[in-house]
Amino acid sequence: MLVGCQPGKPDVQTDAKTAFVDSVLSTMSIEDKAGEMTQLALEMLCVRPPSTPEKPKRQAPLEPHRLDSALVHEALIDLKVGSVLNCAGHAYGPDQWHEFIAGIQSAAAQKTTGIPVLYGIDAIHGATYTSGAILGPQQIGLAATWDTALVRKCAENTAIEVAASGIPWNFSPVLDVARDARWPRFWETFGEAPKLVGDMGVAMVRGYQEGPSPIAATLKHYVGYSRPLTGKDRTPAWIPERQLRQIFLPPFQAAIDAGAMSVMVNSGEVNGIPVHCDEHILTDILRDDLGFEGMVVTDWEDIRFLFERHMVAADYKEAIEMAIHAGIDMSMVPTDLEFPVLLAELVREGRVSEARMDESVRRILEMKYDLGLFTSGGMPPALSNYPAKESLEGAAARAAVKSITVLKNEGQHAIYPDKPILPIGGTGRILVTGPTANSLNALNGGWSGTWQGRDTAYNTPGRPTAVESMIEVFGADRIDFHEVGMNLTSSDIDRIAGHVAQTRPQCTVVFLGEMPYTEFPGNIEDLELFENQQELVQALKTTGTPVIGVYVGGRPRTFSETESMLDAFVMAYLPGDYGGRAIADVLIGAFNPSGRLPFTWPRHASAHLTHDRKFTEGETSGDFNPLYTFGSGLSYSHVETTSIALADSVYQLGDTVTVTVGLQNTGDRSTIETVILYSQDRVASITPSVDVLKAFKQVIVPAGASAEVQIQVNTDELGFIGKDNTYIVEPGVFGLRVKNQGIAFKLTL
Ligand code: BGC
Question: If you take atom 7 of ligand 1, which residue's CA is the nearest one?
Fold first, then answer.
């Protein structure tokens, strides 16, 4: 566990830290401090081809990347830069990471202050930039497991590999709440429900910061990033303060309370103000209301963008002044050398006070102290201590298989007509096709080896794709694979459908979805699933052979007419390197599926509502008709919710309500059941939601058995953001619901 996140300890430690940081701070010049507040990208330190009159701009570093001692000297010693990030384009082996980190820290040790560099990286689903690392599901898949202990374990394992690579700081987790399926970073989130996002976020922060090899977590992207009006990355969001506090802030609050060490800021604008210069959001809310004491870093180039993109500052210098006043501690500059120079000038000119600068530098030094950098000098641990992969694979593979969500299982089984089509039994041939069937990149998504995650050169050899796993699990003689790409044509479709009509396999499995993307490159004009993929399903359906759809992708694209042609439909999200096997194990029935959808899958592109919709959003007109509701997910046994009971009918504010839920497994397989509890405030001064996710619990219900589960909700949690934008709980009648079982009670003050 890191020094800074030991709950309830340390007056002695805090005093020692304060004294140490004070003593370092007292020796620092304005330039030293400006450097500490500066973060540069690794590529700024790497050997590059020289600029020429034809190519006057800075060029991409030469491969293989190497530190350029002159550039390192200029940045770390002359400009005293205190932080470096990222990977200059792609993953490296642990040995190369060690060379970079050791080179950087040795240079940092030579500056007057000798303060080590704080290195940060995006290791969002495993150590994504360390080659060969264990890559588990992306956050949207982790959320579908509804298993916070497993998520914590995955984060612990990520921290082990990141720390073993010599890096102490991770830009993860994403705590944006996904409310718009078009948004290209939907898959980087834990879904649509603030409660699920918060619980998962806390688990991940604890995993990173409190495991055997702790690293610092970063809560991002604070706040309101996920709800731009256009659905496109970094475009304007308009979020009333009530909604900001009701939906978007609670996960940040929960993770701050859990001790998260840093926060990264939303690159976009909210209510007309770029968040990087919004003092209300960065200081009044973050520091005063949420009580965050850690370090705030900008997102990529975002201070510069205040004048280059948002047009709220006249020049770079004014942009820096605005951002620092608003509450930024460190600027992810990351590709110019002007920032520290201009910041020092601003202080010397009195436009930014040195006291304000000290606040930020103190937070940065405290973070470095908590990470033990002053003791280790930031040097990487011995390479021989790099963990054995086998010790880390289990959690990633378990999370992958637990995430797989069976959303539909209706078609008739080829061998046993009284059974649904899944799991695929029998011995017949299975035709497999679809653009995501044979791609490890599709399983992993963005931020895997490279930023966009599309370059096959950085995949770990030997990790199987979905079809390779199907061959392993079903046997090569059963799988008839027809490879197609994202650009599959009508003639490909005709050829495959013709082949199915001729050969009459037992069933077809068609892999749909998207190839990796993140940020701007993932923007879309239309939520509807690609036409050619829909045509493929339609053509396969006309053959009369049952069609099982598997969706590999991170956001719910609409395809309702085509979906009605599928006999079964499985959502795999972005399950990572172990996802191929996870899908195959679910299809064959080696694993009884337990994933539950962490968002509402819209039926139509213009009808994306969430589980916590208002009554006027279709409740009376019947327009709330998503393709799949939040929490959907089938297993190969049917578990019924048979009862819901409370000990009392009246509770007082502050009471804990224990809800007893009865379950009955009517099937012949043991099943993991997630009990999902919603609350309903029957009458409230701000229009209440139809349902709000309040609690969840996972239990195993053996075949044919019944079970009783107790879930607790504190009545303090039944409130909302009221008319004056503060949190209130109003007395009155509340409903509680698990699936089709509901009960009500009265709350008194
Ligand atoms: C992304 C962040 C990321 C940062 C550093 C930005 O473009 O928005 O999520 O942490 O780059 O790589």
Answer: 300
What CATH number labels 639-748? 2.60.40.10
Type and span of the H or E element at 331:
strand 331-332
Q: How does residue 5 score in pLDDT terms, banded at 50, 70 and 90?
A: very low
Which is the closest atom of ligand 1 to the Cα of 218? Answer: 10
For ligand 1, is residue 83 a contact (CB within 6 Å)? no
In short, whether 543's Cβ falls inside 6 Å of ligand 1 is no
Protein residue closest via CA to atom 6 of ligand 1: 300
What CATH code is assigned to 63-389? 3.20.20.300
For residue 413, say if its preceding peptide bond is cis, omega within 30 degrees of 0. Answer: no
At residue 549, what are phi and psi to the nearest 5 degrees?
A: -100, 135
CA atoms within 13 A on the CB side of 173: 38
Cβ atoms of residues 82 and 119 within 8 Å = no
**DSSP code at position 49:** P
122 lines ligand 1 (CB under 6 A): yes
Instruction: Tell me which residues are annotated as active site.
Output: 299
In short, whether 299's Cβ falls inside 6 Å of ligand 1 is yes
Is 639-748 the same fold as 63-389? no
Q: Is the pLDDT of residue 551 over 50?
A: yes
Domain boundaries along the sequence of the chain:
63-389, 404-601, 639-748
Alpha-carbon span 353 to 325, nearest angstrom: 9
* Closest ligand 1 atom, residue 120 Cα: 5
DSSP type of residue 664? E
pLDDT per position as a tens digit, 119-143 = 999 999 999 999 999 999 999 999 9
Q: How confident is the model at residue 355 (pLDDT cuts 50, 70, 90)?
A: very high
What CATH class does 404-601 carry?
A: alpha beta
- pLDDT at 329 exceeding the cut of 80: yes
The overall pTM is greater than 0.90 = yes
Cα separation, 249 vs 254, in Å, equals 9
pLDDT at residue 58, rounded to an integer: 81
Query: pLDDT digits over 566-605, tens only?
Result: 999 999 999 999 999 999 999 999 999 999 999 999 999 9
